[in-house]
């Protein structure tokens, strides 16, 4: 569910335009009282709407009970944990930018980013804790803290983000071959199973399909090179992590009525995937067109599809023209 924050991040990032003279969306050099209370009101309203909306649209549909814990460390080949790291990171970046917009100092803006990012993510974890279907996950909480830490460490030591966390997701095609339940009474297919798990439209699939997603560390090499060394400021080196053949949280088995479906591991082995490739830092591409600059800033939350080399946990090496 944390991935739904991506929509909010994109919408708010799209407002950030850089112009030659101070405009409404440019950060203030000094504390701006009116902007501060505007940002505070917007943040409070956003958090309230998010919390109430999330509860009514998701948790209200499931049974709730007393607060309890749930260990999901080995679920989804850790892809959900990478999602938590990624989301907490960009929530912190977003809130930091909002604080800088009001004229707060770098230190205060950094603390604001961490507090706001932590608040949003912890709210989800607490709601999970009261849900019978899930529970409060310390691994999820730890992943959230790691995302906040990646943001804060860079902002503290470099006063900028040199290593961006990004996501890519290429839609997967699943076959309609029949799968028979263990008691022989029911049939389904991978297409039907993934439609149930990951949604039946492109947006849901992009946000929820762990088989399609890759989480990246996009490293701005120019910022690490000595002054005078030639390297395009917009060209990044990227390393990524993904997984494949996941049709259940812990294993490819799921219950159905009085039986269950099981996909043999030799047919669809659950694999780790590791990637290396290139990426574009779109925020480093500045043009005279203010609208285009804003679009580039908005799109920088995504890994730009480009050639990449994949090495999976079975030792197979695959070259991708676009990943």
How would you describe this structure to a colleague?
The chain is α+β, with helices and mostly antiparallel strands and 323 residues long. It has two domains: 1-161, no CATH class; 162-323, no CATH class. 40% of the residues lie in helices and 17% in strands. A hairpin with a 4-residue loop joins strand 9 and strand 10. The longest helix has 25 residues, at 33-57. The radius of gyration is 21 Å and the shape is globular.
Whole-number mean pLDDT: 89
Task: Please mark out the parts with pLDDT under 50 across 5 or more consecutive residues, or reply none.
Answer: 1-20
Strand order of the largest sheet: 1-4-5-8-9-10
Number of strands: 10
Name the shape in a single word: globular
Percentage of residues in helical conformation: 25-40%
Quick one: biggest sheet?
Answer: 6 strands, antiparallel
The helix-and-strand class reads alpha+beta
Number of helices: 8
Tell me what portion of residues adopts beta-strand conformation.
15-25%
Order of helices and strands: HHHHHEEEHHEEEEEHEE
Radius of gyration, rounded?
21 Å
Number of domains: 2
**Distance between termini?**
23 Å
Quick overview:
With 323 residues, the chain is an alpha+beta fold. It is built from eight helices and ten strands.
Salient structural properties:
two-stranded antiparallel ribbon; 17% strand; 323 residues; 8 helices; six-stranded antiparallel β-sheet; globular; alpha+beta
């Amino acid at each position: 569910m944390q991935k739904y924050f991506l929509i909010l991040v994109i919408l708010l990032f799209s407002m950030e335009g850089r112009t030659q003279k101070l405009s409404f969306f440019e950060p203030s050099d000094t504390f701006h009282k009116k902007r501060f209370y505007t940002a505070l009101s917007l943040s409070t309203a956003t958090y309230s709407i998010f919390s109430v909306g999330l509860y009514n649209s998701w948790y209200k549909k499931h049974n709730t009970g007393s607060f309890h814990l749930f260990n999901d460390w080995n679920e989804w080949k850790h892809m959900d944990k990478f999602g938590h790291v990624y989301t907490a990171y960009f929530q912190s970046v977003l809130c930091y930018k909002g604080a800088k917009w009001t004229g707060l100092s770098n230190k205060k803006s950094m603390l604001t980013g961490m507090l706001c990012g932590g608040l949003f993510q912890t709210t989800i974890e607490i709601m999970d804790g009261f849900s019978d279907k899930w529970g409060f996950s310390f691994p999820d909480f730890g992943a959230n803290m790691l995302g906040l830490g990646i943001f804060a460490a860079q902002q503290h030591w470099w006063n900028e983000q040199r290593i961006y966390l990004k996501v890519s997701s290429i839609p997967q095609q699943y076959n309609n071959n029949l799968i028979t339940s263990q008691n022989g009474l029911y049939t389904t297919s991978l297409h039907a199973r993934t439609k149930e798990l990951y949604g039946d439209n492109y947006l849901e699939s992009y946000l929820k399909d762990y088989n399609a997603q890759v989480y990246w560390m996009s490293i701005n090499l120019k910022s690490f090179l000595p002054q005078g060394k030639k390297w395009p400021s917009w060209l990044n080196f990227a390393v990524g992590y993904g997984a494949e053949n996941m049709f259940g949280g812990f294993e490819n088995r799921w219950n159905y009525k009085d039986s269950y479906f099981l996909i043999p591991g030799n047919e669809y082995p659950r694999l780790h995937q590791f990637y290396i490739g290139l990426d574009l830092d779109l925020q480093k591409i500045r043009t005279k067109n203010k609208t285009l600059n804003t679009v580039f800033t908005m799109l920088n939350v995504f890994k730009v599809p480009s050639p990449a080399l994949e090495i999976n946990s079975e030792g197979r090496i695959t070259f991708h023209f676009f990943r």
